[in-house]
Amino acid sequence: MSEERAAKLAVRNVSKTFQIAGPQNTVRSLAVLRHVDFEVYPKEIVSIIGESGSGKTTLLRIIQGLLAPDSGEVRVGGKVIRGPGYDRGIVFQQANLLPWRDALGNIAFGLELKGVPAAERTVQARAFLSLVGLGDSAHQYPHQLSGGMQQRIGVARALAIDPEILLMDEPFSALDAQTRELLQVELLRIHEQTQKTILFVTHDLDEAVYLSDRVVVMGARPGRVKETVPIDFPRPRPALTEMRGDPAFLALRDHIWQSIRPREPEPQR
């Protein structure tokens, strides 16, 4: 079996340039991604990390099918994607819940779009509500939920459509530090239970090392893959506070930081 067919997600030679309007009817080209190439294998958590401007969110939008690449292709389950699809679930930085639907209704929304009958989607939505630890919050509305609870609902909504891969775009970055670490632990628990393949975009070094099987390091604009760093800690993993004291964890964190940190230009001779 070839590597591409074995991969749950294969990003192959993806490039993207935007045309930006300037003064006096001028237009300039902004290259955001150039020849991006990597894969994610079944049941893996792979994080993408890179400095600001490396095109992480643009890449995720291309994988989700919201943008088309200028060149290259993205395959999910061996099939080239042509637009959004139920084989990909996504969790955004903000939960973006429908304010007029309660927690159960928000989770059921994707199932409704898929045409799942009402009784069946209610059963499924309740199961995913329990999976994220909010079984008692079925009839609470978004304004009644904390930020962390809203993000759990977002994760449950994305999982409910049974995607082949779960895409997560800095989903915990807007949360306070304590809630963030609690949800990192929750995500690992959910991953252990569901065995879903996850692609996780983050700017947090600790988060990337803690959650991932591999970390894809992106270079600055135009974004490209500088290296892929394997994370060999066994699962299940202890709490992040405990792992921060492990010299191997600190060494990996430092290695990734050295790879992404901005470099001073070399003096001209």
General description of the model:
This protein has 269 residues and is α/β, with parallel strands linked by helices. It folds into two domains: 3-87 and 165-260, Rossmann fold (3-Layer(aba) Sandwich), CATH 3.40.50; 97-162, no CATH class. 35% of the residues lie in helices and 25% in strands. The protein contains nine helices and ten strands. The chain has helices at residues 3-6, 56-64, 103-113, 118-131, 147-160, 177-194, 205-211, 240-243, 247-260, and strands at residues 9-21, 27-40, 45-50, 71-76, 79-80, 88-91, 165-169, 197-201, 214-218, 225-230. Helix 3 (103-113) crosses helix 4 (118-131), helix 3 runs parallel beside helix 5 (147-160) and helix 7 packs across helix 9.
For this structure, what is the CATH homologous superfamily of the largest domain? P-loop containing nucleotide triphosphate hydrolases
Radius of gyration: 19 Å
Overall residue-averaged pLDDT value: 90
The CATH class of the largest domain turns out to be Alpha Beta
- Which regions have little confidence, pLDDT < 50, spanning 5+ residues? none
Main pleated sheet: 6 strands, mixed
Total domain modules: 2
Query: Number of helical runs?
Result: 9
Structural class: alpha/beta
Q: Tally of extended strands?
A: 10
End-to-end C-alpha gap: 52 Å
Helix content: 25-40%
Biggest sheet strand line-up: 6-7-8-3-9-10
The CATH topology of the largest domain, please?
Rossmann fold
- Just name the CATH architecture of the largest domain: 3-Layer(aba) Sandwich
Coarse morphology: globular
Secondary-structure element series: HEEEHEEEHHHEHEHEEHH
